[in-house]
Amino acid sequence: MNDNFESDSQADQWQRYIHAKLSAALSKRSSWFLFGLAFLAVYREVFETILFYAALASQGSGGAVFGGFVTGLVLLAVIAWAMLRYSQRLPIGKFFSYSSALMAVLAAVLAGKGTAALQEAGMLSVTPVSGWPRVTLLGIYPTLQVILMQAAALVIIILGFWYNRRAIEAGRPAKAGNQSA
User: Fold this and answer.
1) What is the spatial distance between Cα 125 and Cα 71, in angstroms, rounded to a whole number?
2) Can you tell me the mean pLDDT for 126-145?
3) How far apart are CA 166 and CA 76, in angstroms?
4) Residue 41 · residue 18 · CB < 8 Å
5) Whole-number Å distance between alpha carbons of 141 and 109
6) Less packed terminus of the chain by CB within 10 Å, N or C?
7) 173: left (phi over 0), alpha (psi -120 to 50) or beta
8) How many separate domains does the chain show?
9) Which residues span the domain enclosing 122?
10) Beta carbons of 150 and 111 less than 8 angstroms apart
């Protein structure tokens, strides 16, 4: 339990550090600094990814892992080049607004799919809802648990966007890096 507290504390410190550096980068309009900060934020996750790839490779999927790695590197290089080349014309506020909306949609979809997966594993009960559509691509399943989980996710998302908008309109920065235009 103490380890969780330390982990949460480190995560909070990391979030504050990233937020401070991102705010400085956005205020300076420095695309190189923003690129460096993004690289640093992603670099921290590299070790977990390496462990994941090592587990896949040990199961005999080494060729597929290598092919995916090379494809990912090429795509990353193309995206980085495009971002650096066109960042002068990129409206960063709109970019973060659109990416925030996309993340919100993905959160609702993953809440539905995750709940359905737990039901399939037998870890959650299944209460069917007649007349409710099944749209697997959107994570919509005709069970009460999925509907409630997605509704809860949507309420949290809407409240988060509302709070962020209210903070921006009041002229103070939103907490935890939620800065959308």
Assistant:
1) 40
2) 92
3) 35
4) yes
5) 10
6) N
7) beta
8) 1
9) 91-181
10) yes
Q: What would the mean pLDDT of 73-99 be, rounded to a whole number?
A: 82
Contact indicator for 127, 158 with CB cutoff of 8 Å: no
Distance between CA atoms of residues 29 and 79, nearest Å: 19
Give strand pairing partners of 30: none
Other CB atoms closer than 10 Å to residue 14's CB: what's the count? Answer: 12
Tell me if 86 is assigned to some domain.
no
The answer to the question of residue 12 being in a domain is no
Spatial contact of 107 and 158, defined as CB atoms under 8 Å apart: no
Write out the chain in H/E/C secondary structure. CHHHHHHHHHHHHHHHHHHHHHHHHHHHCCHHHHHHHHHHHHHCCHHHHHHHHHHHHHCCCHHHHHHHHHHHHHHHHHHHHHHHHHCCCCCHHHHHHHHHHHHHHHHHHHHHHHHHHHHHCCCCCCCECCCCCCEHHHCECCEHHHHHHHHHHHHHHHHHHHHHHHHHHCCCCCHHHCCCC
- Give the position of tokens 């809407």: 158
Structure tokens at 178: 């939620």
Q: Is residue 178 part of a domain?
A: yes
Spatial separation of the C-alpha atoms in residues 120 and 71, rounded to whole Å: 33
- Residue 67, domain member (yes or no): no
Q: Mean pLDDT lowest for which of 25-29, 94-98, 131-135, 175-179?
A: 175-179
